[in-house]
What does this fold into?
Amino acid sequence: MKKYFKALTFSFMSQIKEKSQILGKALLYIIIVYLFYQIFENVKAPSNRLWYFAMTQGIILSTMPLVLQISNDIRSNQITYFLLQPVNFLILRFSEAIGASILRYIILIILCLIFVPFLKGEALISRINILFSVFLGILGIILYTQISLLIGILSYWIKEIKTLLYFNLTATFCFGGLIVPIQLYPKIMQKICFFTPYPWILWWPANFFSAEDVNHISGFTGWIIWNLVFILLNGYFFKKYKNNLVMDGG
It folds into this structure.
């Protein structure tokens, strides 16, 4: 496990050197949060709505484009190099993505804690456990990365991977409650959302961050179940891919 932890820390530290990317993400984050601040003010939305949206955006903007990376590894046969090494390709790529995402996420959350009170003229709602909210956000990033791994592996069979990528992004936004909490959806839509993995990526951490009631037992249960599902799917399809690669003479 040391090699994967080293990959995670190396990816984390490498992001520090990517100052232009970090600054670009930070600027985009500030622009988006400010834009929705104006919208929420015009529609007289509850004061905690901006905190909710700031958290969901922080999670989304910090995730790495892992799907395209793995797809490129497969199409360029770069993956065969990793298969010859004493490392698990999926865990390696997963570790690298998590390391880079965590640094981006921390920076965006720090911006959130500075910028949102500046806009609202008030501090974060009292009794909010900020550290626990940030921890839940990292759990959301982990689950999102698991889904990205699966889509990346499926690119071996699905040539138009962008369609699946856009579907995943749209599902994350809609079923994850990107802009408004899922409890404001119609009842039937709420049930559909909670049968998907996406609420545990965005809604769970953002709802707690904005001082709404959250059933953490259901949250951890859903998060664990869906992670196990994607771990099994990723392992199955990656094994299937390696078998096909051997049969094709790769």
Notes: The chain has one domain: 2-247. Residues 2-247 form one domain. The chain has a mean pLDDT of 87. The chain is about 75% helix and 0% strand.
